[in-house]
Structures are given as C-alpha cells and as structure tokens.
Design goal:
two-stranded antiparallel sheet; 2 domains; mainly alpha
Length: 126
C-alpha cells in the first residue's frame, strides 16, 4: 500500500500543471454563471467621483505634474529613467479606472465558457 501511495505522490509532483488544468476544466463545467462586481451599489457615487477626478481635469493636472517631476529628476540625476517612470505613472493613473471597470464588470455565460473550452480542446470534448 505504501508503494501505491508513493507512486501517486510522485505522479502528482511531476504533473502539477496537468493537474491544475484538469481541475480548472472540471470546475468550468460546474459553474453556470460568473458575475463579478454585481453588488455594492452604495459605493457607486464614491467610485464615480474618484473616476471623475482621475480622468478629468484634476487627473490631467496630476499626470502633468508627475511627468514634470520625472523630467526634473532626470535632469538632476542625468538619466532618463525618471521620465519613463513618470510617464508610466501618468498613463497608469489616467487609465486605471477603465481597467478596473473592465475587470470587475466582467460577466461570463456558462455556454460561452463551455464553447471556449471546446475550441481549446481541439475537438476532444463533444
């Protein structure tokens, strides 16, 4: 019995990725619908206000200030990395609300998920 347990343990250790994919595929068949971010309406006014700040005039002023600070740090240090970091931070600040909205408002229908799995499996699942 101990030998069978060792073989099973070695199999699981050597095939972790295959096991994870199998568990994911089995879980996809059991979940009917996925609804992310469908509740919490009491915070929508705060979310709208912060989104307005980030993508409105205040957000643009902060983005320009971040880039200017990056330029001044680049001149002081003699390297271009602070400018790159400033531009990256400004782009992130401006686009973060759109990215968060896209991730948290995602909904998936079970039929679409199963059809996607069928396409990935190369026709092995009918």
């Amino acid at each position: 019995m101990n030998d069978k347990f060792e073989k099973a343990t070695n199999f699981i250790k050597s095939n972790k990725m295959s096991l994870a994919m199998l568990i994911t595929m089995v879980a996809a068949f059991f979940f009917t619908n996925v609804h992310a971010g469908s509740q919490g309406q009491e915070f929508s006014s705060v979310y709208d206000m912060i989104t307005g700040w980030a993508q409105g005039t205040l957000g643009r002023i902060i983005c320009i200030a971040i880039v200017l600070v990056g330029i001044s740090a680049a001149v002081k240090n003699g390297t271009l990395m602070p400018i790159v970091i400033g531009i990256g931070a400004a782009v992130t600040l401006y686009n973060a609300p759109s990215i968060v909205e896209g991730i948290l408002s995602a909904t998936v229908d079970a039929n679409v998920a199963v059809e996607s799995l069928r396409n990935v499996s190369n026709g092995l699942i009918k």
